[in-house]
Amino acid sequence: TPDDCESGPDCNTNGVPDDCELSGNDCNTNGIPDECDPDCNSNGTPDDCESITDCNSNSVPDECELSGNDCNTNGVPDECDLDCNSNGTPDECESGADCNTNGIPDECELVGNDCDSNSIPDECDTDCNSNGTPDDCELFADCNSSGVPDECELDGNDCNSNGIPDECDMDCNSNGIADSCESGPDCNSNSIPDECELAGNDCNTNGIPDDCDTDCDSNGTPDECELWTDCNGNGIPDGCDLVGNDCDSNGIPDECDADCNGNSTPDACDIASGTSLDGDSNGIPDECGPGVSYCFGDGSGSTPCPCANSAAPGEGCANSSGSGATLVASGSASANADDLVLTGSQMLPGQVVLLFSGTTQVNGGSGLPFGDGLRCAGGGITRMGLRIPNASGVASWGGGLATAEGWSAGDVRTFQGWYRDTVGSACGTGFNLTNGAMITYTL
Fold it and tell me: Is the pTM higher than 0.70?
């Protein structure tokens, strides 16, 4: 049958039956000439015979399925692209959130990656310390409940470098500055401003905590708040003022002790050191008794002792004992009270002594040589009586002297003791005298 008369297929309508055109022209052996097979890219090779990518296995090259089907222009049909949520739109073409810009919608990255369940992948959450764990998921200190770890809030906010944000540090005066960073006074260096430690701790209201105030006896109470004596008014308790200032160990500062002679040494210490005599043992230096002592045999006057037998200060000329006798007055110069007592000391035990009185001072008070001593009392002489000194060489006269002699206020009397020194007297005369004492009687 001529080809033109055949009734078989002629796909290319070239007047030649298809089965006559297969030799070398049916690459896929489907009984159809190649030029009649589908060739989507019109490259002369049937689609079935191409070495092509066919992601959806529909025998159509992917490149022929891109029109209107490649939203991200990546050369892959949309149905072959990643679609994590299976909504028919490739992940890259989704309009939803993609916080890490990895082309995957955030909602598809949450499994095992959303510790705080906020629908944001963990790597996109706030992570101030860059340790890979979102701040919300950390077990961290957050003193101000800001949701930010304290360690991430320290830059410019940790004045004392203690790892705590300033707003969380102690701020006793609420001035916005941590106590330990204050520039105000902190007398006890405990990092608390003094102004914050005054409640119940500032007994003298001087704005200084009590433990920083002067506390000389270290008893925990400031000196100003103690119930103490301060005899010299120097603001220091007497008990704290004693070091090197209590010569008689009586617990009273020396400047507050009795000092009758005004020499800045307490009377008791004058007596103990021998710089003052206390012939009547009344604790008062003899020079502070009533009246005035004068005419000493210590070389201080203009008349020397008869044979250079000077004695210690305040004494008469030296006797055989090596000391000079003294005469001191005690009691008062009141004629009405008539309690004047004259006491002689450092005389010779058992050797008689005469107390005599006069109305003047001999030689202007310097005396004149007489026996082993100096005669000091002159004018109208009155014998006041004999005594025998005791074993210590002490003898005394009075009171009642004014009544006995009829003396009254305004009368001036000088007194002196004249005593025997029969064995080994300094100048060999066998007698000596005390210093003189002058009394001006008052009412």
Answer: no
Beta strands in 224-367 (DSSP E): 292-294, 326-330, 341-345, 353-358, 360-361
Residue pair 279/345 in contact (Cβ under 8 Å)? The answer is: yes
CA pair distance 376, 360, nearest whole angstrom = 8
The residues, any chain, with a CB within 8 Å of residue 162's CB and separated by 6 or more, are 169, 180
SS3 271: helix
Which helix (H) or strand (E) covers residue 404, if one does?
helix 401-405
Instruction: Provide the β-strand partners of residue 370.
Output: 373
Quote the distance between the C-alpha of residue 347 and its chain's center.
64
Exposure of 13 by Cβ count < 10 A (0-12 exposed, 13-18 middle, 19+ buried)? exposed
- Residue that is written with structure tokens 């995957």 in the block: 104
DSSP designation for 256: G
Q: What distance in Å separates the CA atoms of residue 379 and residue 413, rounded to the nearest whole number?
A: 10
**Mean pLDDT, the chain, integer:** 89
Q: Given pLDDT bands bounded at 50, 70 and 90, which one contains residue 18?
A: confident
Q: Given a cut of 90, is residue 376 above it in pLDDT?
A: yes
